[in-house]
Write a structure and sequence with these properties.
The complex is a heterodimer of chains A (about 160) and B (about 80). Chain A is built from 6 helices and 2 strands; from the N terminus they run H-H-H-H-H-H-E-E. The chains are: A mainly alpha (about 160), B mainly beta (about 80). At the A-B interface, helix 1 and helix 3 of A face strand 3 of B.
């Protein structure tokens, strides 16, 4: 809502533009976007399974299509976010420190694709675990401690969070 | 790159004459050769000049010191676009 309001104000006041995501490193990276997308994939898998246990009405078919579309998009977002951090943030120093990072990232790509292809919750859980591992590695490169907590919203799965206190 | 700030986001920044800038602050600054940029401060030298890139730089063109006078403001709020 705030963004919509700002958009309207922008058309009237013509706010200054600021370049942020150029190909010039700004050093602003965070694996949380990938983790949230992985959580969303699990959530959509759960909702799809709920539909599977009901009689199929036209409205439910429409809902199923929406859920599948969102699952596809969020699985793709996981791949995108992880690829960007792996490709842009990880340099020789970090790769030397964590030589398994290539395998970790490749496994995430495979798991995200599996989530797109199938409706098994297990695939989503595997994807989240791998993305959590990736996040833990990312924060280790920054000497930031992490902790594991259950996210306070569905699908209530374990997530690796940075301890920034 | 895919930083936290993407096209369509809004940021609110402020600048006060006595404002204290520190490492990890996200600031809007006027680059001499580029448009207004939003970057994170990674170093501050003894003269109070700011560096906005570091060991992970892909490019050297931003790898120099800025006078604090080039800082238009420090980012206070970040309003993300609705497409997220």
């Amino acid at each position: 809502m705030i963004h919509s309001l700002l958009t309207k104000l922008d058309t009237y006041f013509n706010f200054s533009n600021v370049e942020a995501h150029c190909d010039i490193p700004c050093k602003i990276y965070d694996p949380m976007k990938a983790q949230l997308a992985a959580l969303s994939v699990i959530r959509f898998l759960d909702l799809i399974e709920e539909l599977n246990q009901q009689e199929t009405s036209l409205a439910q078919q429409a809902q199923l299509i929406r859920l599948i579309n969102e699952k596809e998009q969020h699985a793709e977002q996981v791949k995108h976010e992880v690829r960007v951090i792996w490709g842009d943030y990880f340099k020789q120093a970090q790769i030397a420190q964590f030589p398994d990072i290539h395998t970790t990232v490749h496994n995430i790509m495979l798991s995200a694709s599996a989530c797109k292809q199938h409706t098994s919750r297990q695939n989503g859980e595997t994807l989240l675990q791998q993305v959590n591992d990736f996040a833990a590695t990312f924060w280790q490169t920054k000497q930031v401690n992490t902790y594991i907590a259950t996210c306070p919203y569905p699908p209530s799965e374990k997530v690796v969070y940075p301890d920034l206190k | 790159m895919s930083p936290s700030f993407i096209e369509g986001d809004y940021v609110m920044c402020y600048r006060l004459p006595w404002m204290h800038l520190k490492i990890d602050d996200v600031v809007v600054l006027q680059h001499p050769n580029y448009p207004l940029m939003i970057k994170r401060i990674c170093e501050i030298n003894q003269h109070g000049h700011l560096k906005i890139t570091g060991e992970n730089s892909l490019s050297s063109q931003f790898d120099f010191w800025f006078s604090p006078s080039r800082v238009v403001g420090k980012v206070l709020f970040h309003f993300k676009g609705q497409s997220r």
